[in-house]
């Protein structure tokens, strides 16, 4: 049995760290491609560009088109080749960072993950989720190493909309649920090895931190201030969840999220984390959790305003036929449902999706 644990080379988290980054970056080169979408450029990207220029870096700004697709990766790769960039900085959300990792891998240059929100666990991992140009899950792309630098400016993250922090909490809350099922099944983590004791401990620490500090962190984020609680949750959403999902493994929750990409319509107005939240509840049904553990997650989701019914997923009119498409996509051989204990079929997934909806509607009706 081979156990594998993987992590970024350097993780930096603190107020103002984007504008203290020259000392870390200069060890890797002076020519930078800065990838960010238009809104992130306005919020902090243009200011970061000025800081880098003042510190004698050469910077090429590239506006991210919004989808981590093969076409977008190819477009940006051509620019890197032309500019002969030594470093690529993915500044923004998960899809921006996943695209930067793919481009960096194409040329074996330094990758810097610089999330401006704590909404996903993408920044630390050595994989990318690749989508089609219209946003449907396509495949995972795996790399030989993690980003060299993960850089979080908590002042910037505290200024982001609170809905994004809540989405990250929902995403991170799946970490220990999935890692526990992977461990029980004795299947591989995301780097083709078995879990270490460190991965197990990190997954549990992630879950414990979220249940203990989420509400206090949300209050701080609403006030746009950094507190110890917010710092803890940012770390849980990004570092603990990132290490925990990769070295612990993904299972049903994220496969369910990917299954929802088979649908069209208003479900895609929801964030990654909101869809993962529903997928986590589905996994708790699939793994046979008792009602106390299920209700612990359900109550927490409801307190955070996360979707726990099909109507709240904008699927109140969804047909059984379409839900079966979700279940079939979730059970794709290219996804992670096969890391669950036992054999999970599309029929099992379909039933669990329906059961979550029914349980949550009944639970909420009793609480009125």
From TrEMBL:
As to how many cofactors bind and how, the note says: Binds 1 zinc ion per subunit.
Keywords (alphabetical) are: Metal-binding, NAD, Oxidoreductase, Zinc
- Which SUPFAM superfamilies does the record cross-reference, listed alphabetically? Dehydroquinate synthase-like
Which GO molecular function terms does the record list?
glycerol dehydrogenase (NAD+) activity; metal ion binding
Q: Which Pfam families match?
A: Fe-ADH (PF00465)
The residues listed in the UniProt record as binding glycerol, with positions renumbered to this chain, are 121, 171, 254, 272
E.C. code: 1.1.1.6
- Coiled-coil positions are none
Catalytic activity as recorded in UniProt: glycerol + NAD(+) = dihydroxyacetone + NADH + H(+)
Q: What class of enzyme is it?
A: oxidoreductase
Q: Which organism is it from?
A: Bombilactobacillus bombi
Q: Which residues form the Alcohol dehydrogenase iron-type/glycerol dehydrogenase GldA domain?
A: 8-154
Q: Which Gene3D superfamilies match?
A: 3.40.50.1970, Dehydroquinate synthase-like - alpha domain
- Could you confirm whether the keyword Thylakoid appears in this record? no
Task: Give the family per the record.
Answer: Belongs to the iron-containing alcohol dehydrogenase family.
Q: Which NCBIfam families match?
A: PRK09423.1
* Keyword Cell division belongs to the record: no
**Cofactor(s) the record lists:** Zn(2+)
Q: What is this protein called?
A: Glycerol dehydrogenase
**Which pathway is recorded for this entry?**
Polyol metabolism; glycerol fermentation; glycerone phosphate from glycerol (oxidative route): step 1/2
Any idea which positions bind NAD(+)? Answer: 37, 94-98, 116-119, 125, 127, 131
| Entry's Gene Ontology cellular component terms | cytosol
Cited CDD domains: GlyDH (cd08170)
